[in-house]
């Protein structure tokens, strides 16, 4: 069974592709029943359907290929709850030879392009547009199914409505740290000016700067620079923010159904077409006003600035898609969300301080940002963090709202770097239709058959606490619901969902069960779309070969990594490692073939054999072993793992290593110190770092300039090959990984040596001229020996 091919069809990876029928049997599997779902996975065969989906009136499942259809009476039976539903009149032509695309057996995933905008926007372009006059098997053309969306060329009218535009508009509030040094501030301003040029004319923009004070720019006032100033040391509520800015907020629940939401005529949030000159002028005039006393850090009120930005968006009722983008170069030293005091004698917190309770501001600041997370979710606002500083900036405290809103986090050293420019431009890139590649205001709903219960989800999502009969009382991560909210998501965003079996009425082995994921989101043009993914698997008897054959060890490793991170945020690292070890021993004891009390007899079949190796590298990874990492770095690593798919997660857990030599094309080699050789080049990819490691002989020849000699063309090609592959890796990822070039025995080689299996150490008796690693860590072989010995015990 090729799990990668299945993922390309369904957008899903299952830890177990056949499920036992009872809770006791499921608990004996050790690895939980879970699905890694990539809601918007790119697919060339995905049909875009320009009409509304047919929804079951009982369980809210969407019509799918597993439904039973009575063509004569135009009725379909829901495969989830067996409720009978009648097709609307637009499906009058349905038949065995004239099927809508959602019933095609090959379309496990379809996307509905809903022409009408939600009723709260008062726009309905194509009411009555249905399957029969849009898309059927007799007139199907996937590539031609596109419906135009009117473009806004106007701004907010005098009465407060957005004139010349039907439907919602995106909003962007840029929050700039005015405490940066002049060179860094100039780099940020230059990039923001380029961003504004790329924004749609109808996009709303706002500008806030902060140091010891928070300044909100009135972009509608042309006579001079006009700002509203907030004291950075005080926590200001949403209502107070709106009162000071002169905003009369109208909540969504108070609006009349079917009426267009009123976006007030305010200078703090205006369409680009109306304020481009004023916005550009304001950006150019930003300068550092902070006076830094000797021996002190700048007075920086980051938390207050974010709170004001959220209050602004809440007051303007922009509940359809907005981003708050923070650009900062240091930690908050003032007001809510403070990270460290301004006195340089107060060292910024480390992992040791967090463990020992010596970080007095951490708990209170995290509580403040967690409260912001709720406000961001309710207002459908995304929080992005761009931080460039040689020191920490408080990303560990920021992690909550950034992750829960699906926001972007970049930690770098300089805003003048290529990495920052690439990240920002990638976020504001456009698709082939000219729309921003941004998807806002998303929800994911899960529907299952009656024998399956939903436990929760781990990833960039927030539980909406909506319960029904398929929601389990046992929660994992964001649980207690069948529906989750996402501020934004990308084609790579992946969420892990966890399930359990309900054995009140035991399912029949061999019968099928279904799981459906319904993702509703706003496209780059802010039109509403629904992606529906439906998948079926079979129940299996306990100890059935179907269960073992359906185990996906790569997905299992990714799921366990997320669970380990979830535990690491709540328990000490040693307790997490102990939990991982206990789980692995139970797993090996369950699925290994061995004679009791005989470790040498222990064997794992091929579809289980790599899993212990993944767990070995996970134990040593920066996600669990935080030695030599700051809390900010750990927060960034964990945030990235929690949204990456199976392939990316595995690279983070167990990096890849390729060898380049004169003997032929590059080949993958073991992630082991024995793979280092004097006459080869190694390309190491740990997702966050890409290392080109030159053997000592290759490095010597390069320094002598042999590669410039036409007689040594092979050496030139050998040196070029890993550089081209490394550049490709750097280009594909956002944020871009750090590219490191190093020679054998050089100091930079530590980035490679720290991740290699230490099979040869200073304690090895037979070295044979091999590279050695100075460490007391267990090697993979020693780890496996211990695992085998513990697994075969009675």
UniProtKB/TrEMBL annotation:
Gene3D superfamilies from the UniProt entry: beta-sandwich domain of Sec23/24, Sec23/Sec24 helical domain, Severin, von Willebrand factor, type A domain, Zn-finger domain of Sec23/24
Domain Sec23/Sec24 beta-sandwich: 440-540
Annotated ranges, domain Sec23/Sec24 trunk: 169-428
InterPro entries found in the cross-reference section: ADF-H/Gelsolin-like_dom_sf, Beta-sandwich_Sec23_24, Gelsolin-like_dom, Gelsolin-like_dom_sf, Sec23, Sec23/24_helical_dom, Sec23/24_helical_dom_sf, Sec23/24_trunk_dom
GO biological process: COPII-coated vesicle cargo loading; intracellular protein transport
Principal cellular location given in the protein's record: membrane
CDD domains in alphabetical order: Sec23_C (cd11287)
Record membrane topology: Peripheral membrane protein
Chain ranges of the Zinc finger Sec23/Sec24-type domain: 53-91
Domain annotation Sec23/Sec24 helical: ranges: 552-649
A GO term, aspect molecular function: GTPase activator activity
CC per GO annotation: COPII vesicle coat; endoplasmic reticulum exit site; endoplasmic reticulum membrane
Domain Gelsolin-like: 666-752
Localization (cell): Cytoplasmic vesicle, COPII-coated vesicle membrane; Endoplasmic reticulum membrane
A Pfam family: zf-Sec23_Sec24
Record keywords, A-Z: Cytoplasm, Cytoplasmic vesicle, Endoplasmic reticulum, ER-Golgi transport, Membrane, Metal-binding, Protein transport, Transport, Zinc
Functional note: Component of the coat protein complex II (COPII) which promotes the formation of transport vesicles from the endoplasmic reticulum (ER). The coat has two main functions, the physical deformation of the endoplasmic reticulum membrane into vesicles and the selection of cargo molecules.
Similarity comment: Belongs to the SEC23/SEC24 family. SEC23 subfamily.
UniProt-listed PANTHER family: PROTEIN TRANSPORT PROTEIN SEC23, PROTEIN TRANSPORT PROTEIN SEC23 G
Protein name (record): Protein transport protein SEC23
Organism: Salix dunnii
